[in-house]
Each structure stands twice: as C-alpha cells, then as structure tokens.
Amino acid sequence: MSAEPTVSVVVPTRNRVDMLQQTLRTILAQDALLEVIVVDEGSTDGTQETLRGWRDPRLRLVRHDTPQGLPAARNAGIARCGGAVIGFCDDDDLWLPDKLTLQLAAMRAAASPWAFGGAMTFSDGPRLLHLTPPPTPTRAVERLPWENTVPGGGSNAIVAADVLREVGGFDPMLRSLEDWDLWIRLAQVATPAVVDRPLIAYREHGGNMSRKIPTMMDSARILDERYATLRDGEPLDWVGLHRWLAQMVLRSGDRRGAIGLHLSAVRARHPGALRRLLRSLVPIPPRPPVASAENATGWIERFRPRQVVPWPEGAEEWLGEVLGAP
Length: 326
Prior knowledge:
This protein is of the alpha/beta class. It has two domains: 7-205, Spore Coat Polysaccharide Biosynthesis Protein SpsA, Chain A (Alpha-Beta Complex); 209-281, no CATH class. The protein contains twelve helices and nine strands. It has helices at 17-28, 47-52, 70-79, 99-110, 137-143, 161-167, 178-189, 213-226, 238-251, 255-267, 273-281, 315-324, and strands spanning 7-13, 34-41, 59-64, 85-88, 94-95, 114-123, 127-132, 158-160, 193-203. Strands 1, 2, 3, 4, 5, 6, 7, 8 and 9 form a nine-stranded mixed beta sheet that branches. Helix 9 (238-251) packs antiparallel against helix 10 (255-267).
C-alpha cells in the first residue's frame, strides 16, 4: 500500500487567538502527514507571538498587515502549500480526530480528487445544536448549482492539489459564499467522495450575524447568474437560503435580523415564510436540542417541542476536552 500523501491545511485568521489555538490542536492531532499554513489577516491580539511560541515544525505563518479578505487569504495559503492534498479550516471550527483518515480513505476508494463529510454545530457549553448529514455524492453534484450541499462551510472538504489549482482556487471577487462557488466548480470536474459521519464541529458564537447578510445576498445573486446554465435558467434555492440564514441569525441572538429575512421571504412569496415570520416575532429564546426523548418531557413541550439530537459517540467528551484545554 502506498504511503499517505502529505496534507496541507490552510487556516485564515484574524483576532481569534484563543479559538485559533483550539482549532490548530484538532488539526495537528490528525493521523496524517501535515503542514499547516496559518494566514494571519492583520491580527492585533498577539496571534503571531503566540503561535511562534508553539515551535511546531509543521506550523507555518503568513502575515498580511492589511486584511485581504477570506478568499484571498485562502489563495495565499494555497500558493505556499507543498502537499498533494489541500484542506481548509476556519479559525473558529474544529476537526474531529479521524477526519483526514476517513477522507483520504474515501478518496482512494472512490478514486475521487475531493471529499467531504457531515458536520455538527455547537455553541458554548458545549451544547450540540444540530447535526447535518452529508448528501450522497450524486445528490451533492446535482444540487450544488441550487444550494450549498457541503455541510459546515469551507472547513469540510479536502481536495487534490493539482485539481484545486486546475479549477482556480477561491474567487477573490466574492466577499462571501466563496466556498460554495469552489464546490460547484469542483463538481463539474469530478464527483466527490463522501464520508457519512460528522467530520467537523462548526462553532456558533456571538456577533451580529445580520451585518453579514447583505454581503451573503450579494454573493448569492452573483452565483445565481454565474451558474444559471447549470440550472437550465432556473433560479437557485432562494427559499432554502433565506431559511438557513434566518436560522443562523436567530441562533446568534439577533431576532430583528431574522425577522427582516423572514419579511423578505414573505414579500418574495416563499412557501411557509409567513409561518416562520410569525414564529420569529414571539420573544421566546431559542432552546438547544436535547440528547434523548426522556429529556424532552413536560407540559411546555406540547406547545414547543424540542428536537432530539443525540451526540455522536464520543463527540461530547472530545469536544469538552478541546474546549477545556488551556
């Protein structure tokens, strides 16, 4: 059996040194030959000094004194990658321990140049908020022109370096959804290998998500036009996009932003938009799902049932250790 390829991992960052260190620990703990390129977008929180203190030969630092944006930062990392396979991770996400092992095996088995898996979404606690299983490879390719079928954003997929450079990396003209754009282009070259397990832990944390909504909508309109021929002129899934963005905004605590998105959906006559708008108008804080049905009992559940989402085996303990590490 041939030796595993070296995997280069690109991690853009800006002023998140504490979360970044947690992210890097989960990457460097992978059972793979690694190099990790951290692209620092003008951090002022001591990121450079902290990481230099790690003295890990697998870790390389790139500094942009002036932030250039996420796509450009990732491309700067790609330009410095020496591995045969390239992956990406945002500075607030985490990789489950066997992520690369499973993805590399899936790529070999499917003879595919790229692979992704499922994702779990968590918040402080840690609290498990959602599990997103991956689609089948066929459905991923079929639906990508309409919706982003790769769970967890840009932290999920790994790609053969030659194929990544062939399709052109990330589009620096896009200020958001640049990962979706890349997955569409990759799907035109090859069907992905898919691992039917959560591979990344996507972190939801504070911040005004609604500030990002105009940028996301602008990028979505670009993708709508750019890939119209792949959809035979049909629009992308605006209904699903509005619903997903509203859920993200509401979970971040910005109820006003969620209401605005639902209002836009009502004006566009999206199915179910009025019901979701009315639900978001009720000032009841969102509640995380529970691990088992036994925890979802009580009179209030008759009116507002909780979603039952069990932790993947061993994930709660692993995540607690990662978040509790100094």
